[in-house]
Design brief:
Chains A, D: It is found in: Cell membrane. The complex is a heteropentamer, with two copies of chain A, one copy of chain B and two copies of chain C. By secondary structure, chain A is mainly alpha-helical. Helix content of chain A is 78%, strand content 0%. Chain A folds into two domains: 4-54, no CATH class; 77-281, MetI-like (MetI-like fold, Orthogonal Bundle). Chain A is built from twelve helices and no strands. By secondary structure, chain B is of the alpha/beta class. Chain B has helices spanning 31-41, 44-47, 60-68, 79-87, 134-144, 162-169, 180-188, 217-240, 242-252, 262-280, 298-310, 320-323, 329-332, 337-345; strands spanning 16-22, 50-56, 74-78, 92-97, 104-108, 124-127, 154-157, 175-179, 194-196, 208-213. The two termini of chain B are 37 Å apart. The relative contact order of chain B is 0.18. The chains are: A mainly alpha, B alpha/beta, C alpha/beta. The interface between A and D is large, with 76 and 77 residues.
């Protein structure tokens, strides 16, 4: 319980209850712990019986039971794990490169107004170019291997991060910067001591968007020219009319995205703790 | 669904609306010109009291999905994909053939020393994508020469068109495995190619065939027959006057030009269309004699099925009756050939 | 509930329990009742829990133990009849000074024209006429604080909580504001709890002065100020006022020469 | 010149100079006005002569002159304008729907912690599914017309906006919320008076990313099943080996993205003016 | 440059010209020289430009006209030998109090251990021992202000600018801090410019008191305080101190009973 919360239910004690009741309290205080699985079960059941009732064909929308079956089949296949590994690699590498480049360029750009005004139009213009259309060129330039997919993932996760980094570095409080300036801080020091911490909420938003798009980028890259990876598997299952198998791959991709999302949120709670603690709860 | 098909069209000869799914995301000098545009512009659809629209789908699988789900009524899809769909209980059925000669072929640079499958050991083969018809073709091609496609060659996805040409020119691949009409487009851009002969094994494997929804096929036999008839009339016309067909194609699908002028493009596009027409008409004989449109023999189906199975697109055998409904072809071929030929000979505009 | 215990604090305890550091006992066993219409000041050393007490009264901070009632109602969330001046001005940077001052009226959907007029009067009173259309960052610290006072008064709240409202003001402005506050209080019949660091100010304004001990804040003494009302500044030169000031000051061990 | 800037060059007067020298000063104070075109010219010239020198084939990377030629041809074709109109419509509609849905859902989600914890996993999971893979199904579900492309654009611009809205609404200063709470503000009022203005920098970052992705979404939607629109034109030009024409379309898409970006930045300067004015310049 | 004009302000003018509203003349024709090691206080009504003056001295705000020199150098950007206490504490929320105080030492890459020790001493001096590991939002307003004072002193700057450093402190703490500040100043030989609202505080601490007129701030009078040093609090009860206080107060039209 944060110390600055606004009371909107009978005030609770600030002291935690003795250890014994902890576990039970968790479920009451964090209802998502049972809500998420409940919603999941409800959705899956509705999907399963809804498609049966409405007689939706499996090639339009396969039923969860069919997807699970396909998933089991996939998971038992060592090839599948190598596809998974390839895509994870591409997405992660692309994410790190894209997001890293965005942080570097965003930092550079936002330090010097002229640079921002000069470069931003080109970046936006480049971003609006559909990467999928350029993909053949990508493949020409970066080859058929990992690189072109990594580039794809990097390019697509770059932009959301860049915009958020620039906006975030701008959001620093002028008084705090003045304070540091008086004490003789260099630009680098101001950046490290104020701008970066102030930008963290933006940066984490950018990371959250970035990782999702990095996975998408890797998959789309694989659509265009790959012989392995989950994107390739998607094409393959689709080509073979194995729509349930295709959905199984989609499920795996979703789980990848979810895991990455949770890692990022965890990191955020560690690194931007002060924001959590001065948060107003219940207001 | 995007189909405006008239459900009450059971009555013979009643007016009907149909949606034709083009099994490719782009419109080019192929079936949509030779068959659809011509049939529409020359009134062959109108004669059958049909109003036909097109949609573009991203390949044969998507086109079959569209037909099965009712988003479209008819498509010309890869026969292997039709087999695959039927095996996965997707309710579609082939009702007539379209591309009858094996359209896939291997191409190398004109100065290449490669002459056949046996030379491809250790080479890189450019395919459209690993999940497209060109990959199984490439594998089958090298397998026919006694090589192990999994070990002896490497398949690389290069797409069609510019990037495929670039991959070959840059030496990223040693050989391309594309369909003839795609080569025509590449050659139009000034790249010259040398083609390797297909072994006889590929003779008789069917490519594009007309497919419709299987569930209401019985109710719609009449409509589909009329559609096929219009389509085959148009094919006959196009085979006899490709240039006229191409001009008609520009009228119906101005987007083919993508901003360029028709006169500038015509020669190239006619060449492409001819390349396609060659695969869709008998290998020998005079265009004016072409008859018996859409027939697929049982032997051809067997061969196609064997090939599809080897490609991994189907895992078992599909009963011919489940995939093939030849009963419409008699009606479809019942038209006045002379009138079409006359029109083709005297077409002006 | 009676008029005599309009605000009622019984056995109030407050312990802050931050996630990442040791707990702090801010208030301990506070008992206090305030009559309706009374003017009570709270003085005490920095960090003794004055702000904490006001925030609990305002329903902004949960208590650890004890009971807090205003007008007979348990305080578990902010009550509409309470107005507050914060220790930091807390103006909204995207609103002009005038629109900042109108916030309470806007929130409570009070008659617009009437309150616009009142806001204008209050601005004049605190010497901010001409700054209505400026944004907070264009004002000096003291000017922002004065705007915060106007905001707390604009909707004429029945209970007024003020956390060092005059801390950033110069002597003259402060005296003037004190006099004006007394006038407004007299005319409106508000119940006021004021936190201040100025002992003379507390004596001048209050019916009673609550002296808190250093952290954890306990009530050291409650000093009733029996100077007749209405008061003028000159009353502070009187011996009786001096006695009160000295008495309160004695809790602080301060010489009283600076403040 | 902002009033809180840190001096790092000889202090300039706060008063604007008399009108006469305005125009000249503008160029000196906003060097981007000549830098952007200069950079543009340099890049274009380097491209033009670089490709000539290195003998890059036109079908790998066409020269600017060829692209301009193709562009002229396109602009003269009424069909092109209808393609442009279709894509603009799809992108704009998708943007409005996607961003609107993100604001609504983000608002709702961030108000109630349980809802956030319950829904977010599903949203992230859904977002990681490559929309391009689902596109055939999109088309089956939403038809081959405008709708499926609008849905595509909406879905893809939704997520960056959602993440930024949630993070932005969270970023509100606790003291300000307490202030409003004391004066009896309802959640809606707190939202309107503090949360929303505080979230504006995040929201504008989200809009900036969203519009770019909406255009991409529309184009990718057209790749999969369309007979008009710039995405279709890209496919067609590529198919026709008209790589210069394809680049001309890419240029048009870039210009679309740029225009949208500038509109959003303009809006931001109007709506979030206080952030501009309290900004520290030169630090 | 001589020791006698260590800080030199000549014909200083400052006009704020916000983008969206009317300009404000904050300072007008300020002329002031400060000796090396001198203690000068600035008093004046709220909004008269005191903070503005300090910010210009600190190199944080551009001047409109005139010249400002410190140690012979034109002030166009912050000088490393200057330390400052801000009117608002401006602590970094992501740093503990201790790490906040170490900011200047960290920035100037000064000897770590030595300054850690000094920080610890300063914290003790201002009564914040035990709060080193807390974060700013866990401190009361006055405690944050005291942390801000420690931060300005930690690197022992040659010139110390202080903007109402004791505004949020109670009488006792304030007096104590005044005495300590004088001690530190005497020992270190710093040049100090202090803005305050407390006239007695200004008299007690300063060699000279600069009285500014209401906005736009002009120098109304500069009062030299000729009380012998070292001073003790008791000096403030003397008649001579009283004369100074009254003289300065006369500029404010204030009764002097509250502050
Ligand atoms: N949000 C918080 N979290 C943890 N501790 C807190 C918090 N707010 C205040 N405290 C602690 O509670 C005690 C009392 O703080 P409070 O702000 O009430 O003091 P105060 O009397 O108002 O002081 P001042 O006169 O300096 O404003 C202090 O020791 C402070 O450190
Ligand atoms: N950033 C700014 N933009 C525009 N006007 C400003 C700005 N800062 C201060 N002012 C104006 O300049 C004048 C002097 O402000 P300043 O902060 O220097 O006053 P001050 O003497 O420090 O007052 P206080 O004692 O209330 O802190 C005020 O009228 C204020 O409105
Ligand atoms: Mg306080
Ligand atoms: Mg000030």
């Amino acid at each position: 319980m944060a110390t600055t919360d606004v009371v909107d239910k009978p005030p609770r004690t600030d002291a935690s209850p003795p250890g014994g009741t902890r576990r039970r309290l968790d479920l009451r205080e964090r209802p998502q712990l049972w809500l998420v699985p409940t919603v999941f079960v409800v959705v899956v059941l509705a999907w399963e019986y809804g498609t049966q009732l409405l007689e939706v064909d499996a090639y339009v929308l396969p039923r969860p039971s069919q997807i699970v079956e396909a998933l089991q089949r996939q998971l038992g296949d060592p090839q599948f794990w190598s596809h998974l590994w390839v895509t994870s690699q591409e997405a992660l590498l692309g994410f790190v490169i894209g997001v890293g480049a965005a942080v570097l360029l965003g930092t550079f750009i936002s330090q010097i107004k002229v640079v921002e005004a000069t470069l931003m139009p080109y970046i936006v213009a480049f971003q609006t170019v559909p990467k999928v259309a350029l993909a053949p060129l990508f493949v020409l330039w970066f080859g058929f291997g990992l690189t072109s997919k990594v580039v794809m993932a990097a390019v697509i996760s770059f932009f959301p991060m860049l915009v958020n980094v620039i906006e975030g570095l701008r959001a620093a409080d002028a008084d705090r910067i003045q304070m540091l300036t008086v004490f003789g801080a260099s630009k680098t020091q101001i950046f490290r001591m104020v701008r970066l911490p102030s930008a963290l909420p933006f940066i984490f938003a950018g990371l959250d968007i970035g990782i999702v798009f990095a996975i998408l980028g890797a998959v789309v890259g694989e659509f265009i020219g790959a012989k392995e990876g989950l994107g390739y598997l998607l094409l393959q299952t689709n080509y073979n009319f194995d729509i349930a198998g295709m959905f199984a791959v989609l499920v795996v991709l979703s789980v990848m995205g979810l895991l990455a999302h949770f890692v990022i949120r965890l990191l955020q709670r560690r690194l931007a703790f002060w924001a959590e603690e001065t948060k107003v709860i219940g207001a | 669904g995007g189909s405006g098909s008239d459900e009450s069209s059971g009555a013979e000869g009643a007016p009907a609306e149909l949606t034709f799914a083009i099994a490719s995301a782009v419109i080019g000098p192929k079936e949509e010109v030779a068959m659809f545009a011509v049939a529409k512009e020359l009134g062959y659809f109108a004669e059958e009291k049909l109003t036909v629209e097109t949609i573009n789908t991203d390949g044969s699988v998507a086109a079959l999905q569209a037909v099965a789900s009712g988003s479209a009524d008819v498509t010309a899809a890869d026969s292997g994909s039709i087999l695959g769909a039927v095996e996965k209980n997707v309710p579609v059925k082939a009702i007539g053939g379209l591309v009858q000669n094996w359209p896939w072929v291997m191409a190398v640079k004109p100065d290449s020393t490669l002459t056949g499958g046996a030379d491809l050991r250790g080479k890189k083969i450019g395919v459209i994508s690993l999940a497209s018809g060109s990959a199984p073709y490439a594998r089958a091609y090298v397998a026919a020469a006694g090589l192990d496609p999994a070990k002896d060659v490497e398949l690389l996805p290069v797409g069609v068109g510019a990037q495929a040409a670039a991959a070959l020119n840059d030496g990223q691949v040693d050989v391309l495995a594309l369909y003839t009409q795609a080569y025509a487009v590449i050659e139009n851009s000034g790249t010259t190619l040398k083609y390797l002969d297909n072994p006889d094994a590929f003779d008789g494997i069917r490519s594009l065939s007309f497919a419709v929804g299987a569930r209401d096929l019985d109710d719609k036999k009449d409509v589909h027959t009329r559609f096929l008839r219009a389509a085959y009339k148009a094919m006959l016309f196009s085979a006899n006057n490709p240039e006229a067909a191409m001009r008609i194609g520009y009228q119906v699908f101005p987007q083919i030009l993508a901003g360029k002028s028709a006169d500038e493009q015509l020669a190239n596009d006619v060449r492409s269309l001819q390349a396609w027409l060659k695969t869709a008409t008998p290998a020998s004989g005079e265009p004016k004699d072409f008859a018996d449109w859409g027939a697929i023999t049982e032997a051809e189906w067997t061969k196609t099925q064997a090939y599809t199975k080897e490609a991994g697109q189907i895992t078992g055998d599909v009963a011919l009756a489940d995939v093939w409904e030849p009963g419409l072809l008699a009606g479809a071929n019942d038209f006045d050939k002379a009138a079409v030929l006359d029109k083709a000979a005297n077409y002006t505009k | 509930m009676s008029e005599d215990s309009w605000i009622e604090v019984v056995g109030l305890d407050k312990r802050y329990q931050p996630r990442r550091s040791a707990p702090t006992q801010a208030l301990s066993d506070i008992n206090l009742t305030v009559r309706r219409g009374e003017f009570v000041s709270v003085v005490g050393p920095s960090g003794c829990g004055k702000t904490t007490l006001l925030k609990i009264l305002a329903g902004l901070s949960p208590k650890t133990d004890g009971a807090v009632r205003i007008a007979g109602r348990e305080v578990t969330k902010p009550l509409p009849e309470v107005g507050m001046v914060f220790q930091a001005p807390t103006l909204l940077p995207w609103r002009t000074i005038f629109d900042n001052i109108m916030v309470p009226a806007e929130i409570q959907k009070l008659d617009r024209d009437k309150h616009r007029e009142r806001a204008q009067q209050l601005l004049e009173l605190v010497g901010l006429t001409g700054f209505e259309r400026k944004y907070p960052h264009e004002l000096s610290g003291g000017m922002q604080q004065r705007a915060g006072i106007c905001r707390a008064l604009v909707h004429d709240p029945a209970v007024l909580l003020m956390d060092e409202p005059f801390g950033a003001l110069d002597a003259m402005t402060r005296e003037y504001m004190n006099v004006e506050l007394l006038r407004i209080w007299r005319e409106s019949g508000q119940t006021v709890v004021l936190v201040t660091h100025s002992i003379p100010e507390a004596v001048f304004l209050s019916d009673r002065v609550v002296v808190l001990s250093p952290r954890p804040g306990r009530i050291a003494e409650i000093v009733p100020i029996e100077l007749e009302r209405p008061r003028e500044l000159s009353v502070m030169s009187s011996d009786r006022a001096g006695v009160y000031v000295d008495r309160i000051r004695s809790h602080f061990n301060a010489a009283g020469v600076i403040d």
